[in-house]
Sequence to fold (551 residues):
Amino acid sequence: MPKKIKNIAASAVIVSICACFIASSSSDNFKIVKNLDMFFSVFRELNLLYVDDIDADKVVKSGINGMLSELDPYTTFLSEDDIEEFDLATTGEYSGIGAIVSPKDNYIQIAETYRDFPADKAGLVSGDLILSIDSVSLHGKTTTEASSLLKGEQGTALNLLVVKLKTADTVSIKLARDKIHISGIAHAGIMHDSIGYIALSSFTQNCQKDFKNTLRELEATKKMKSLIIDLRGNTGGLLDAAVDIVGMFVKKGTEVVFSRGRIKDFDYSYKTKEEPLLLNIPIAVLVNSGSASSSEIVAGALQDLDRAVIIGTRTFGKGLVQTVRQVGYNSRIKLTTAKYYIPSGRCIQAHNFSERNEDGSVATIPDSLKKEFNTANGRKVYDGGGIMPDVEIKTDEFSDIAISLILRNLISDYAIKYFSRHEKIVEPENFKITDDDYSDFVEFLSDKEYDYQTKAENLIEKLSEEIKNGKYAGSIKEQTDTLKNQITHDKAKDLQTHKDEISQLINEEIASKYFYQQGRIRQILTDDRQFDAATDILLNSNKYSEILHKQ
Fold:
């Protein structure tokens, strides 16, 4: 059947469905029916009369996405092509080789491998260049295209043609795809001889089991007297997992969160279901602006119940619950169905998506409208803007030159170069690059393209434009030009001014090449003000108690 006829038939079906909806709808739904009828009529006219054939899937998907863009960013349409990525985000599982890839020299390189999965077992390392997969050349392929070729049914074989980083030899590597489970536990261990540490990177399916097993392993050391839960950068995930994790530290039957929606079916109270593992152990929770959703449920519930000291910076502020619904043809819609409220009764949603500013931007909830609530001990907490930590510890912003080096992968590229030259390094906690290494890095950058505009340069640029259009342009231009010359950045100077910051970023990247993601975290913790503040509080029982009982 020709494409045009197929689309005519499809539009006829759509119009029929709309007609049925009209016939069965009450007058209260007239506005909805009217707009649906107009949407289908527009599609019909496009399909019948537009000068070129239209792609029905593309046009309708654009229409759906346009409709959803008027709502919140968490309400999204998931076509059949999007399902695999969505499932990975919620389950933490896929079938492949267990590696992250990135573009390099018109081919694809291994950027990172996951410990003990096929790529790692086959000896693939960061910097190995993949030329082809099963005889399919990767020249000019995107990382998405390469990832698609690497994924597949569990147990199926792959043949990679690879240029090895350390030898420059071109070799054929055979391996089999396997189920890759990315644990939500990014790193765990005993710190300062008595403090348990668990970095939780996501709330995927069954991550609470990984968390519980890790907690039991730390407890089995007989050393753990207190605990740090690191939720920084954890953007959330499954609500049930968050409730179960809180339940490991509070009494069975404790309400952790409750939801309220427009439809009563989405009103629900989430209570802990099991007896706690560690009811009295002192806890510190690390958060930042990247901690969202389920992370905020854990941090907020433990704060409201006075069960932990929250340390870091204000969290993201996502107090909305999403539900996934099937909409036919292997497609789904993930839509916001409720707001959630933590034990004190507050909702921490920071943005009001139902109200927009004149320029179309989303309105934030002003401080004047934020309400006061109380924790179990009577401490004051507030709604409408994320979780405010009990102890605020701000971190330095990245310098402009550091951001430029990160975005252009130059720090990662240098780490791979270092990795190719050094067989091993000391443990991440003790690793630091030398002054000679940093000089080598500066030399490495000498023929690389990278630039940036500092905040001061950006401001003077805007000022110059304003002056150029004003009546004082002639008399002030010379002064602004002089100022511009004075503040124009000098890359060589900036590399020395921000040496400590850039060196630390290099340390972290190199540590990850030898010790996987755990190595990166272990290195980060060596120069981490928020982590240091948490350990100081946990090692001082009086200070810990004072914070939780402060009125």
